[in-house]
Amino acid sequence: MATSCIYSQDDPKPETVFVTKPYEGKPVKPFPLFGQLSISIPVRATPERSESDTYDDTNTVFDYILPDGLSAHFGYGIHHNNWVGLSADVGIDYIISEKLVTAPIYGSLFFSPKIWENTNIYLQAGYGKAFALGRGDLSGTYQKYRFGLIFDEHITLYIEGNYYGFPLHEMKEAGSINFGVSFFNFL
């Protein structure tokens, strides 16, 4: 709001006039919330490749790694200026080669410092509990570490490592490396 005084030669008393104009700033959010949907694909090394195979121009990335399942996670939390946030997350992970379906429930913390005009680095760490579905009472701790790039504040391309703190087959613990995309909705 702006105020101004108008003086007239005939009237010795100033007159106050109020002029209103629309607010041009960003609206103030009462509580900074966000939602996140992540879809990723676990990968594994190609079992038929040997160290004696040589690289040539006909090789593709699928000559070295293969898709090995599907993961979907959803989280809801609070953030500060889209730069740092804390969320509660749930998901479902399916790893084909291990015949493993898990349901992780975890909390996560993310940082996303800006590196270019419309691009941020994305770092996320999560910790919670994972339940193996269809395997009795098999459960254990769950850890997630994610690194990626956020484009235009809403889409993230990332690589992540998942750790399941329970034994599986001959392994002491299970885990996976995933490539994925995440969609943010800052409310």
Description of the molecule:
This protein is mostly beta strands and 187 residues long. The chain has no helices and twelve strands. The chain has an eight-stranded antiparallel beta barrel with strand order 3-5-6-7-9-10-11-12. Strands 1-2 form a two-stranded antiparallel sheet. The chain is elongated and about 95 Å long.
Protein traits:
mainly beta; about 60% strand; single chain; Porin; about 190 residues
Portion in beta strands = over 45%
Helical proportion, percent range: under 10%
The largest β sheet comes out as:
8 strands, antiparallel, barrel
Order of helices and strands: EEEEEEEEEEEE
Multimer state: single chain
Q: Outline, from the CA principal axes?
A: elongated
Our count of domains comes out at 1
CATH class: Mainly Beta
Rounded to an integer, what's the Rg over CA atoms?
A: 26 Å
- Give a count of the beta strands, DSSP E runs of length 2 or more: 12
Low-confidence stretches: none
Spatial gap, N to C terminus: 28 Å
In short, what is this structure?
By secondary structure, this protein is mostly beta strands. The chain is 0% helix and 62% strand.
Task: Give the SSE map.
Elements: E1 2-6, E2 15-19, E3 33-45, E4 65-67, E5 69-80, E6 84-95, E7 100-111, E8 114-116, E9 119-132, E10 139-151, E11 155-165, E12 174-186
Antiparallel strand pairs: 1-2, 3-4, 3-5, 3-12, 5-6, 6-7, 7-9, 8-9, 9-10, 10-11, 11-12
